[in-house]
Batch of 3 targets.
Target 1
Amino acid sequence: MEVAIPKSLEALVRRKVEEGHYATEVEVVADALRLMQVRDEVGAVKRERLRDALARGYEDIAAGRVVDLETDDQIDAFFASL
């Protein structure tokens, strides 16, 4: 597979090799893709944790486990206590 690198990124790729961080330009691109994969995986985990937290929140609401906060001071105090 051949991939064209935008001119704006070519200098970065070359610099990484010249500085000795990578042996070849291919290694730079491969590492960038691995980092993208990790970022995507982390994002998926965060979304799943958010879904779980929302589900627990809805369950708490349905069970009446809620705290009414009506003023800014009450809200600030609540978050300060976490």
Target 2
Amino acid sequence: MLHSHLTTLNAVSLILDTFKPDGVPSETLLAGSGIGSADLSRADTRITTQQELRVCANAVALRQDIGLELGRRMHVSSYGMLGYALLTSATFGDALRLALRYPALLGTLFELSLEEDGERVWFTASDYREDLALTAFNVEFCLVSLNVICNDLLGRRLPLLGARLAYSAPQYRARYAEYFDCALQFDAGSHAFAFDRRWLDQPLPLADAVTHCAMIERCRKQNAEFTGRQVWLDRVRQLLAAQLTAAPGLEGLAEQMNCSARTLRRHLHDLGCSYQELLDELRFERAKQLLGDDELPIYRIAEQLGFSETASFRHAFVRWSGVAPSQFRP
């Protein structure tokens, strides 16, 4: 089963705003994501991480180092109620530990942790399981935005004692100095930045116990909604992924989910997707895996994905990836 979660439109909206001064149409950035202009106008729209990653991939194709810039713009206020809960925490350490309790509300693709190392604390992002081609982008976006959150919480710049990345230095490595004012190591064992552990006890300038308690309760309810929807969506995706050779159709899938087709369609719409979009996404992911086997003929791949004709699969793959299946093969 694909590793997918629900998230908000915050990152997508940020990407669109970042490219707006360059005159890049929103349609170019949203291409292939299934996100439309109507979705952008609804504050309660929820999308899958796969939809978000499609927009991210479009952004990286236009500008390779865009993850650094996007991370710099992702302030604590971008996280809604969780952001205000963090700001009103008693201490810096309390705020960071609260953030780790609600990864779904952070919309992170990583397992975040605070790892003490003597007098240092490493804020670490691990267990990335999404598109490997977007690893550097997502690490940059994650670590830079976490650093920005730290600065916002403290009301001043958090002095960093070091940063490390598990991948090799990109061509634009000189730009990292603009975002990490500290010793920087590539090809390290993890993705993290470090600060003096004494900062964990630092009182926050906007601490407010009454507001904090109210925000915590709202975060708890929102997290329950997010995780509940994620469990439901994961079940839908699991059922559909197991039947790609002979997809059940909306009616058949609804029966397997013990609901009506109308209910299934409405729930999927509320999550920002449709039956066909989920089917296409799962077929595309499976197609990329099967194309890695040079011994498997393309017509066999088409059959395994439920296409009655090889030509139909070729047309669909070009629509998904922009290239023919034969060109995608290594």
Target 3
Amino acid sequence: MNVKPSIVNSRAYNKRIVTIWHYILKKRYLYLMCIPGMIYLIVFKYIPMYGIIIAFQDFNFKRGILGSSFNNFANFKQLFGSEIFYNVLSNSLILSTLRLIITFPIPIILALLLNEIKKQVFKRTCQTFMYLPHFISWVVLGGILTNFLSMEGLINTLIEKLGGQKINFLGSAEWFRTVIIGGNIWKEAGWGTIIYLAGLSSINPEYYEVATVDGANRYQKLWYITLPGLANTIVVMLILSVGGLMNNGFEQIYLFQNGLNISVSEVFETYTYRIGIVGGRYSYSAAVGLFKSVVAAVLLFSTNYLANKIRGGSLY
């Protein structure tokens, strides 16, 4: 008896649906735990994407999004014709690239060092002190850094006592990026070790035992076992970091920005705040934000593609 292909495909499809539902019911508590996160993403990430429309409008508060008139790409023409925009783009790319190059390896190094500590009490204590700054807001950390780096602060006092000249860290364009990157390392480096420590814990201990029997020293174990075992985690984190290359963070930049370092401190976050919230140019600031998001998406997909081609491993 011949069965039509369409009927066979329909039965296979229905069987697959039933299998999926059985799996969801089996893991129902895990999916229930995902619901708050999904609601957050929908409400605060996906629904606001409707507002992207104003990047192509002359937005008016009285008329609203639906009532405002479209001006096609006038905001983008103004954007790409502005010299300030290219200065902002340059500042954002330079700062974010330096941040990526300098800060990305540090959590890996810290995780490797922590992994070598055998005394668990000392290891947990070090982890706690490294994690702690992550839970402190930038407003508080900014005040602490300001006290340390001011002309009469601890750092300049030490420099003066050692016979050097005081440095205006907070009012100097040359030192602005150093202060931002240093503060970011202090706040986030310890927290970034969590994922790498989890990756290290997944490496089979038998590999190290076999390497010890074969006469491998600590550095050889690190090079041939530990780093290859962390390779996939490093690739995924690198892809995510490159995808966020255009994001420099508003709070930290805004806290340390002033008239003396504005030439290097004006990035997309502070620029859109100044022209959008303060200046009331909502359509223009939406165009700037959309441009930044498109560039970030291109960087994310490009890095993922290259990682897949070079290593055979990628984010998706």
